[in-house]
Design a protein that fits this description.
Elements: E1 7-13, H1 17-27, E2 34-39, E3 55-59, H2 69-82, E4 87-91, E5 95-97, H3 101-111, E6 116-119, E7 122-124, E8 157-160, E9 171-175, H4 176-182, H5 195-205, E10 209-213, E11 218-220, H6 230-247, H7 253-261, E12 265-268, E13 273-276
Parallel strand pairs: 1-2, 1-4, 2-3, 6-10, 7-11
Antiparallel strand pairs: 4-9, 5-11, 6-9, 8-10, 12-13
Amino acid sequence: MTARPSTAVVTIAAGREAHLSRQREALAGEAADLQVVVGMAGPPDLGDVPGSPPVVSTLVTAGDAGLPLAAARNAGARVALEHDIELLVFLDVDCIPGPGALARYQAAARRVPPATVLCGPVAYLPPPPPRGYPAAGELARLAEPHPGRPAPRPGEIMLERERFELFWSLSFATSREDWLRFGGFCEEFAGYGAEDTDFALRAADRGALLAWVGGATAFHQYHPPSRHEPRHIRELVANALLFHRRHGFWPMTDWLTDLDLAGAVRFDPESGTLRLLPGFRNHNLK
């Protein structure tokens, strides 16, 4: 890539209309040619956001196993590629792009070798104040990038072939060619958890590099932890078992251990045991 690549933002959503509206407001004036919003619980409420990129929507039907997060990202990518997009930037509906985040992804895409997954820092916001979050340019004072992941200075790019378990689908980008090379997300995963780590490991198997892109920051809007909800516990267990069958080790071990301590599941990684316990809906996880 030499000139600025044509760029689409792919966002999956199920409700959280206010979060989507804030995201689209932050995209106003940013270097995006298209936004694809994938509804997983009915048509997304797009409305009119002055200055935001052109937007199209598509639907993916949720089944009994949970929201089709993997299938929705794949569907959004397909729509974007039908518009001859060169760079796919995936932002979950909770994420507000910081000023220049897309430009940082675009600049990084021109510098990295083929077969690279671009990952920007993610900073978690506290609950919004009574008047709501300030403009995107002022969010950095409310939250620092997550300490468990690399956060290079703006303009820096860190390349590595390790630590693919640190990949998050909240905010990442790939070229059109690399998306097709990596094969998208495995749609056997449904509901909450592990589909993003599976994607990263399969990309690694195809020779991928991780690129930590300084300045491509996304600010994650607050919501209560979803993994504490009983329906998500069932999804976590099903997806963890699927992941273990595919890769031979357990994902999300901290979460599964917490659920074990709370009496929601029985998790013993040494014996290969993971199962829901009777009465798991009444667990004591805080």
